[in-house]
């Protein structure tokens, strides 16, 4: 439940802001990108850690772009999200690139907000998977990541909209149809 509230906080923070320039700026200025305690970021700050290798795939340095874009363990989630939304995501998936891409999509504002929220939830799910792996030594199946994204975004959307037009099955087809 705490994790759900945490996620809700993250996406509400995104959706409630109408100052688009500000959230783009905050990502570039040390937000999602540089504040995350990835192993590489910790090592750069002089913290003595045993390894900078990604704990999810054990293949590559754990940088932000690796964790959220390049890591073989999480690539699948982006493929599934592309198919789910019927949108082609950019090849480079650094947080700032993705948010710029969302901003420039030829979609209505509510649809863009939903795409942005889905990306935020994907980041949250990936980072939670990473933390569970590192700290709890418990590894959820990678395939369940996408289920988490669809589940939590549906829960969030249906709790915000009193007249939610979608049920869970319809939501799984394409959430943008309900915006
Ligand atoms: Zn990795």
Summarize the structure.
This protein has helices at residues 2-16, 20-28, 32-35, 39-44, 64-70, 72-85, 95-103, 109-136, 144-160, 168-173.
3D architecture notes:
By secondary structure, the protein is mainly α. It has one domain (2-178). It has 10 helices and no strands. It has helices spanning 2-16, 20-28, 32-35, 39-44, 64-70, 72-85, 95-103, 109-136, 144-160, 168-173. Helix 1 (2-16) packs antiparallel against helix 8 (109-136). Mean pLDDT is 80; it is low at 13-31. The structure holds zinc ion. Zinc ion (ZN) is lined by residues 54, 56-57, 60, 66, 71, 73.
Descriptive labels:
179 residues, mainly alpha, 64% helix, globular, binds zinc ion
Question: Helices and strands in order, then pairings?
Answer:
Elements: H1 2-16, H2 20-28, H3 32-35, H4 39-44, H5 64-70, H6 72-85, H7 95-103, H8 109-136, H9 144-160, H10 168-173
The chain binds zinc ion (ZN).
Zinc ion (ZN) binds next to loops.
Count of DSSP-assigned helices: 10
| Ligand identities | zinc ion
Going by helix content, strand content and strand pairing, the class is mainly alpha
Order of helix and strand elements from N to C terminus: HHHHHHHHHH
Average pLDDT reading: 80
Radius of gyration: 16 Å
Number of domains: 1
Percent strand equals under 5%
- Quote the distance from N terminus to C terminus: 27 Å
Estimated helix fraction:
55-70%
The total count of strands amounts to 0
Query: Could you describe the largest sheet, including whether it forms a barrel?
Result: none
Categorize the overall geometry: globular
Low-confidence stretches: 13-31
